[in-house]
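Input record, target 12 of the design panel.
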């Protein structure tokens, strides 16, 4: 039953074809989704080089007090970002068109609201299709999105 629900969630929310942002939501807390993604990324050779709990960082910087009622009006309970890199893709992109390194390393952001975690990722396929790095960017995007989707198919 859980797998059926997961497939339904994926079907409804994976992509809007005209969007430059990949988006998928899971009926699970941010820590579970993040843990699953981190494990899958590691298994797929996608190295997490940095993590940031954005909402917590904002609070530590006093932005919740500074902005008062205007702080986090979306009511998110978590906003976390990871920066991911893969040496092969990075090297291929540098060699083909170093300006396309704007898409590599990859940034994946997770938000949580009401127990639902949404994973967001700017698609490298939004880059200039004339770039010599475009085929590598598309391959990188497929690897990242597949890893995200596969990460939640495993019960942890």
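The sequence produced for target 12 reads:
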């Amino acid at each position: 039953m859980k797998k059926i629900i997961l497939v339904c969630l994926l079907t409804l929310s994976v992509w809007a074809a005209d969007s430059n942002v990949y988006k998928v939501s899971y009926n699970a807390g941010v820590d579970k989704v993040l843990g699953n993604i981190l494990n899958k990324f590691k298994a797929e050779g996608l190295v997490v080089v940095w993590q940031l709990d954005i909402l917590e960082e904002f609070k530590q910087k006093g932005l919740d007090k500074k902005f008062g009622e205007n702080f986090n009006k979306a009511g998110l309970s978590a906003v976390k970002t990871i920066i991911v890199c893969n040496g092969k893709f990075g090297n291929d992109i540098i060699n083909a068109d170093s300006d396309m390194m704007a898409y590599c390393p990859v940034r994946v952001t997770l938000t949580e609201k009401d127990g639902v975690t949404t994973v967001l990722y700017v698609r490298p396929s939004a880059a200039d299709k004339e770039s010599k790095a475009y085929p590598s960017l598309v391959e990188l995007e497929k690897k990242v999105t597949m890893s995200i989707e596969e990460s939640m198919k495993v019960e942890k």
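The radius of gyration is 17 Å.
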